């Protein structure tokens, strides 16, 4: 039997402020095949990542994650699926600045209802090169180090799907390569499939599956 796609979308449309902000006819990602969600600014990439993570329900269409219909399973089902199977590196990182980087990871585990795992947490921080900074506050780290914390935090619950929103667009070529190397390496070590949303076309050669989004108005024209 063929494995279900990790992600499947059909005829998904979402509106905000009275206008369409996301329109996808069809899009899918098989498990284990890293994807690049490419689209111009304003094409709905962040909106789509949020929908895949179950953080919003689009107005119309079918979205499935790991064979689960995200609309049908309700709020509690989406929260459970996200906690168990999705890690997100947000564009603005959204670290909790009042607590240490280790506590940022501990909180992500606790909020997913998972038992503490100090050994796993230490191993993750070693993997991203921050074991010696685990008691530092996010404000004491460089932006690149904070991004490493955000990647570690996204992986702390061993997700099947790792989402990253615009992780490279403001970076020079060498730093951009380093960030994608980090995401690919950490996704591989965690057994996660990576989906990067970006308008940064430099990433086209780095991820095997290309998923393209057009601006909803352009698609309709
Ligand atoms: N709550 C909202 N109310 C009104 N408009 C919104 C809302 N959320 C998003 N939008 C608009 O919807 C469009 C798509 O937003 P989104 O952030 O998903 O795009 P994006 O492709 O990720 O853009 P970028 O590459 O600039 O981050 C944008 O024009 C944005 O201004």
Q: How would you describe what is shown here?
A:
This protein is 35% helix and 24% strand. It is an alpha/beta fold. The chain has one domain: Rossmann fold, CATH 3.40.50.300. The protein has a five-stranded parallel β-sheet, sandwiched between helices. Helix 3 packs parallel to helix 5 and helix 5 runs parallel beside helix 6. The protein starts with 6 loop residues before the first strand and ends with a helix. The structure holds adenosine-5'-triphosphate.
List keywords for this structure.
221 residues, alpha/beta, Rossmann fold, five-stranded parallel β-sheet, four-stranded antiparallel β-sheet, 7 helices, 9 strands, 24% strand, binds adenosine-5'-triphosphate, P-loop_NTPase, nucleotide-binding, ABC transporter ATP-binding protein, ATP binding
Q: CATH homologous superfamily?
A: P-loop containing nucleotide triphosphate hydrolases
C-alpha end-to-end distance: 40 Å
The level-1 CATH class? Alpha Beta
- What is the percentage of strand-forming residues? 15-25%
- Continuous helix count: 7
What general form does the structure show? globular
Radius of gyration: 17 Å
Secondary-structure element order, as H and E?
EEEHEEHEHHHEHEEH
Which architecture would the CATH scheme give at its second level? Answer: 3-Layer(aba) Sandwich
The level of helicity is: 25-40%
Structural class: alpha/beta
What's the number of structural domains? 1
InterPro entries: AAA+_ATPase (IPR003593), ABC_transporter-like_ATP-bd (IPR003439), ABC_transporter-like_CS (IPR017871), ABC_transpr_LolD-like (IPR015854), P-loop_NTPase (IPR027417)
Protein name: ABC transporter ATP-binding protein
GO molecular function, one term: transmembrane transporter activity
Pfam families: ABC_tran (PF00005)
């Amino acid at each position: 039997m063929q494995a279900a796609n990790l992600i499947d979308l059909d005829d998904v449309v979402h509106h905000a402020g009275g206008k369409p902000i996301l329109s996808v006819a069809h899009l899918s990602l098989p498990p284990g095949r890293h994807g690049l969600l490419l689209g111009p600014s304003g094409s709905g990439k962040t909106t789509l990542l949020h929908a895949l993570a179950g953080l919003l329900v689009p107005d119309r269409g079918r979205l499935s994650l790991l064979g689960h219909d995200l609309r049908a399973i309700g709020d509690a089902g989406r929260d459970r699926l996200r906690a168990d199977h999705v890690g997100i590196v947000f564009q603005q990182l959204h670290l909790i600045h009042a607590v240490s980087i280790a506590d940022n990871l501990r909180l992500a585990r606790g909020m997913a209802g998972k038992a503490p795992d100090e050994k796993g947490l230490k191993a993750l921080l070693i993997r991203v090169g921050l074991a010696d900074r685990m008691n530092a506050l996010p404000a004491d780290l460089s932006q690149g180090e904070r991004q490493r914390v955000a990647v570690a935090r996204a992986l702390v619950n061993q997700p099947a799907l790792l989402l990253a929103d615009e992780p490279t667009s403001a970076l020079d070529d060498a730093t951009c390569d380093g960030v994608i190397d980090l995401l690919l390496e950490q996704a591989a070590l965690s057994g996660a499939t990576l989906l990067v949303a970006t308008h940064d076309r430099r990433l086209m050669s780095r991820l095997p599956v290309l998923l393209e989004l057009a601006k909803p108005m352009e698609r309709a024209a």
